Amino acid sequence: MKKAVILLSGGLDSATTLALAKEAGYDCYALSFRYGQRHAIELEAAKKVAASTGVREHKIIEIDLRAFGGSALTADIAVPKSRSTEEIGAGIPITYVPARNTIFLSFALAFAEVIGAYDIFIGVNALDYSGYPDCRPEFITAFEKMANLAIAATTQPIRIHTPIIAMNKAAIIREGLRLNVDYALTISCYDPDLDGVPCGRCDSCLLRAKGFQENHRADPAQNT
After folding, report:
1. Nearest 5 degrees, angle CA 190-CA 30-CA 186?
2. In what helix (H) or strand (E) does residue 53 lie, and over which residues does it extend?
3. What residues does each domain of the chain span?
4. Which CATH class is domain 3-214?
5. What does the radius of gyration of the chain's CA atoms come to, in whole angstroms?
6. 187-219 residue pLDDT tens
7. Most CB within 10 Å of its CB: which of 98, 100, 183, 214?
8. Which of 210, 170, 186, 172 is nearest to 53 (CA)?
């Protein structure tokens, strides 16, 4: 089986991406990060998703992006709540973490090179989070080009896979349901309480709720 590194946050998108990589026949190695995010409960979700999906290995890397801040997820900045779909899609939201996907993909590239993998999967989405610059197809194409200049192993090209990049939340959930993803294990909230209970009002909670509603399904994690 071909090996692949899967960036796994513990959220709905990355869990679906992992399931799609498994369906494609990859031997999956999951990679998560404790990066100073306020919603670190997602790492417990990532562990559960990785275990339920049967990955070969799951690494959790410690970095601290609080040193830079600049985001509601890594600094003492309020997470936006109760915004409309139009407001969510307008501009770059304060929940954007500067350079996060660049950093995560760089770690994934190092992991891939060590284990002899040439495929990296990341659950970026250019529709629901169109304001995030590091979720754009142009960014992925540019990183993939850089990756192939950066590594010592050159027997075949590195490929960055973004299977859900052009799907809306409803379509992502539909794919996950088809693949029997256990969404009860996932958490998408940007601002859960200390017990990990989703706020139900941040952008991510609202988009998730909308996706389940459009599939006429209840969210098994009650993330509404």
Report:
1. 35
2. helix 42-53
3. 3-214
4. alpha beta
5. 16
6. 999 999 988 899 999 999 999 999 999 999 999
7. 183
8. 186
pLDDT tens-digit map of 39-76: 889 999 999 999 999 999 999 999 999 999 999 999 99
CB-based burial label for 189 (10 Å; 0-12, 13-18, 19+):
buried
65-88 residues labelled b (16+ CB within 10 A) or e (exposed): bbeeeebbbbeeeebbeeeeeeeb
- List 60's β-bridge partners, or say none: 32
Q: What residues contact residue 200 under an 8 Å CB cut-off, 6+ apart?
A: 189, 209, 223, 224
The phi, psi pair for 2, rounded to 5°, reads -70, 145
Q: Please tell me the distance from the alpha carbon of residue 184 to that of residue 216, in angstroms, as a whole number.
A: 16
Sheet architecture: strand order including 3-7: 57-62, 27-34, 3-7, 119-121, 159-161
Query: pLDDT confidence of 130, banded at 50, 70, 90?
Result: low
- Burial grade of 15 (CB within 10 A; 0-12, 13-18, 19 or more): buried
